[in-house]
Structures are given as structure tokens and as C-alpha cells.
Write a structure and sequence with these properties.
Blueprint lengths: L2 H12 L11 H20 L4 H5 L1 H29 L1 H6 L1 H30 L3 E2 H31 L8 H31 L3 E2 L12 H4 L1 H32 L4 H24 L14 H32 L4 H19 L14 H5 L1 H38 L6 H23 L9 H26 L5
Antiparallel strand pairs: 1-2
Length: 475
């Protein structure tokens, strides 16, 4: 076996996707997404359908979705993440540290929610402090993880040679940066709102009322809720949607008008239903959570879920294209993992946990922000490294082939074999560099040979064309 092939094989065994573990994320991810969606919808509409959700059927559904989410995330999802990140965690210190913190935090949050369930069963009430604790832990850790992701993307953009072409990288750096800010502020605003509006013990007899949050009702906390939480979170959503739309446009085969209509419609619905509430600030005269305006909530949820679908589809499309370009391309798996991660993270941040209802719908989904932000960050980091190193390898191959062409060394079998051998040596060295951070190159030895043949063929055509131009034309 050629040296590069052996290195590729060894790297694959320890890298993020050496054995196609990404496919093992599909089932638990779909289960978790369904459970998170049910939990989120219940949190958004419990005031409208209070009867069944507060009674025994709602409690049973809350327990069932909670067990489903934590069982699937703790044993299936986290287990798959453990396998697909083994290589990169052992080589990249900050990712390994984040992973250990998430592994330790998940059982803690599951234990707190289990205590809430037990209190509801035996005491018919639960302590508000438990929700505050989960909110601070989940939001705080998610903000740190997303902050790391933002730092990496913005660093890559700053170091880019052509920043105009890498505008999408800037958007993908801005989105997690704004999300980190909003979710970090969330640890203070949401907790303060709950402590101000809710009693220490939450009982099923309490009337469920979704109060408006503004500067008039909550003072400084109300200002921060809008300025430092809601607006940055919406801006993050816009950056992510624009980045995904630009990516999808590159692969789209439909007309521009039709394309932008399909892509932008979900976002237009989402913001169209939110604008009246934002415009009414700080008076709070128009409250999205008012029962008589429930139709606006429906449009917001529908627009948000459809937008998340567009974002996920952009990554799935890119993963398919990566597979078409290179067989068994690890970037495909990185992007598939990113698609699942971004959808789960986006939905898990939607529940208004500060309403502190009985049962506390939205809290289990909110607690999963930690593991979903971990998945999103690791997949983005791995795909970015793999793609950037592949680009660097292709540039090295092209530069070396062009140098040999200028020296007149392309043309004989012996020289072509020597050129191929030297290029494979470059590829092997590049593979070792990438292996040090636990990520696989997308190019195998055969891919390198094929790309080299394409470059050589192109250079020969250019050389032949140049010679034809030098020949005198016939009279």
C-alpha cells in the first residue's frame, strides 16, 4: 500500500468520521428533534390549551418527552459523538475540555429535571429555583461553546487571502458570536424575570399568564431582554439564513426569482409576525404571547421551523456535492452532523422557559442547548479544517506541476512517474499535518492522482495552444 494511503487509513480510524459514525447520528437526532419540537410547541401554547397540558395527559407527555430526549441524547447521541470525535478530542485541547464539561453537565441537568418530576408527583408542586439553575447552567455553557465556535470562524476569516469570496465564513462567524451574546445574557434576564414574576413554588392551580417583558414592567431587565437578548438572537438568525442562502444559491438549478422566494418566504413569515411586538416596545401594547394574538405565534413557529429546514438543507446539499466530488469524503459526514446540530440547537433555544409553567414545558429542550452546541461546534471545526487543508493540498499540487511544466519536465513516462511520486509525498506530509488534529483529508491517494492528471492535462493543452499560436499561418 502506498504511504499516503496508509496514512489516510490510519487517520480515518482516529478521525471524526473514520467509520461513517455520522450516519449513526441520524436516528437519535431525528428522535430528539421530534421530542424537542413537541416540548417547544407545548411551551409556546400551554396558555391556550391549558386544560389538557396541566392535567394528567400533559404531565405524562412532559415525562415521556423528557425521558426520550435525555435517553436519546445521553446514550445514543452522546455515544455517537464520543466515537466520531475521538481523534479530534485527543489532539485539540479546547475541544477535549469542552466535551468533558458537557459530559459532566448532562447528568446534572437530567438529575435536576428528575427532581422536578418527583416533586410534581409527590408534592404536586416544584421549586422555581430548579428552573433557574438549569437555565443558568445550560445557557452559560452553550454561550461559552458558541463563543469558541465564533472565535474560530472569525479567525479563519481574518486570515483569509480573499475576504470578499469568504464572506460566508464571516456570516458563519457572526451568527454564533451573536448567539453566544444573546444566550449569555439569557442566564441573567430569564432568571431575573422568573424570580420577579413567579412564586418560589409553582403549583398547577396557578393561572398561566404570559406577561409582556419590557422596560415598563421589568426595568433594566426588560431593556436587556430586548437589546442584548432578542435583537442579537434575531440578528444571528439573519446571518445564518443569509449564509445558508448564499451557499444554496451556488448549487441551485432553479431561477433566481423562484429560488429567493422559496428561501426567503420562511424568514419573511417569521419576522413579519415578530415586527409588531418589537415595534410596540417599550410600551408592550402588542404582546406576541397575548391569547387573542395566538395566530401570530403560529406564524412565528411555522416560519422558524421552515427556516431551520432551509438551513439544514443547505448543509445536506453541500454534503452531497462533497460526496460527488470525492468518494467517501469525510466533509460529507461533517456537514451532515452540522445539519443535525444546527436544527437541534436552534429549536432548543426557542422555548420561553421564563414563563415557568406547570409542568415546565420547554425546560428539557432548553437544557439540550449544551450538547447541541457541542455537536455544531465540533462538526463546523472539523469540516473547516478538512476543506482548508484540501484546498492547500490542491494548490501545492498545481504549483508543483506548473513548476515542472515550466522546466519542461512533463511529457515522458519516467518524468511523469517521478512527478506523481513527489506529489504523493507532498500529500502524505499534508495528511500527517491534518492527522495531528484528528481530522481526515477528503482526498485519497487515487483522488490525488486523478487531480494531478487533470492539472497535467490542462497544462499540456495550454502548452499545445501556445505552440499553435506561434506557428505561422498558411498563405
Amino acid at each position: 500500500m502506498a504511504p499516503f494511503a496508509a496514512a489516510r487509513r490510519d487517520s480515518g480510524n482516529s478521525s471524526v468520521t473514520g467509520n461513517n459514525h455520522a450516519l449513526g447520528l441520524a436516528l437519535p437526532s431525528c428522535i430528539i428533534i421530534a421530542a424537542i419540537a413537541i416540548d417547544t410547541l407545548s411551551a409556546w401554547f400551554i396558555d391556550v390549551i391549558e386544560g389538557p397540558l396541566v392535567a394528567a395527559p400533559g404531565f405524562i407527555m412532559f415525562v415521556a418527552t423528557t425521558i426520550t430526549m435525555f435517553a436519546a441524547s445521553q446514550y445514543l447521541l452522546l455515544g455517537a459523538v464520543r466515537k466520531i470525535t475521538r481523534g479530534i478530542r485527543s489532539r485539540v485541547l479546547f475541544l477535549g475540555t469542552i466535551y468533558k464539561v458537557v459530559v459532566a453537565a448532562q447528568p446534572v441537568m437530567a438529575g435536576i429535571i428528575a427532581v422536578i418530576i418527583l416533586e410534581m408527583v409527590f408534592l404536586n408542586e416544584y421549586h422555581l429555583a430548579w428552573i433557574v439553575a438549569v437555565n443558568i447552567l445550560a445557557s452559560g455553557l452553550a454561550a461559552v461553546i458558541l463563543g469558541v465556535q465564533a472565535y474560530r470562524f472569525l479567525s479563519w476569516f481574518v486570515g483569509s487571502r480573499d475576504r470578499r469570496k469568504d464572506f460566508v465564513i464571516l456570516l458563519y462567524g457572526i451568527a454564533p458570536a451573536l448567539s453566544a451574546l444573546a444566550i449569555g445574557v439569557n442566564t441573567f434576564t430569564h432568571s431575573s424575570i422568573m424570580l420577579q414574576d413567579k412564586p418560589a413554588l409553582i403549583e398547577p392551580t396557578q393561572q398561566i399568564v404570559f406577561h409582556s417583558v419590557n422596560s415598563t414592567t421589568h426595568g433594566l431587565v426588560g431593556v436587556l431582554f430586548i437589546v442584548a437578548y432578542a435583537i442579537p438572537l434575531l440578528a444571528s438568525f439573519v446571518a445564518l439564513m443569509i449564509g445558508s442562502a448564499l451557499h444554496l444559491r451556488y448549487y441551485s438549478k432553479i431561477g433566481k426569482t423562484r429560488y429567493w422566494t422559496i428561501v426567503c418566504l420562511p424568514a419573511v413569515l417569521f419576522f413579519g409576525a415578530l415586527v409588531p411586538t418589537l415595534a410596540a416596545y417599550p410600551s408592550g401594547s402588542f404582546n406576541l404571547y397575548a391569547e387573542e394574538l395566538v395566530a401570530f405565534r403560529v406564524v412565528v413557529i411555522a416560519g422558524a421551523f421552515a427556516s431551520f429546514g432551509v438551513i439544514a438543507y443547505s448543509y445536506i446539499t453541500m454534503s452531497r456535492m462533497a460526496q460527488q466530488e470525492v468518494a467517501n469524503n469525510p466533509v460529507r459526514d461533517y456537514l451532515l452532523v452540522a445539519a443535525f446540530g444546527i436544527v437541534m440547537l436552534s429549536i432548543s433555544d426557542m422555548p420561553p422557559v421564563y414563563h415557568a409553567t406547570y409542568p415546565p414545558f420547554g425546560l428539557p429542550a432548553h437544557s439540550l442547548m449544551v450538547i447541541t452546541s457541542l455537536i455544531s461546534t465540533m462538526s463546523f471545526y472539523s469540516s473547516a479544517i478538512s476543506v482548508s487543508e484540501d484546498v492547500r493540498l490542491r494548490r501545492s499540487i498545481r504549483a508543483f506541476a506548473r513548476e515542472s511544466h515550466l522546466l519542461g519536465k512533463i511529457g515522458t513516462v519516467r518524468i511523469d512517474q517521478e512527478l506523481q511520486s513527489r506529489v504523493l509525498t507532498i500529500a502524505k506530509e499534508q495528511s500527517k499535518v491534518v492527522e495531528e488534529v484528528g481530522v481526515s483529508l477528503s482526498m485519497t491517494e487515487e483522488d490525488v492522482k486523478k487531480y494531478l492528471d487533470e492539472v497535467v492535462t490542462e497544462l499540456r493543452k495550454n502548452m499545445a495552444g501556445g505552440e499553435d499560436n506561434k506557428r505561422p499561418s498558411r498563405p
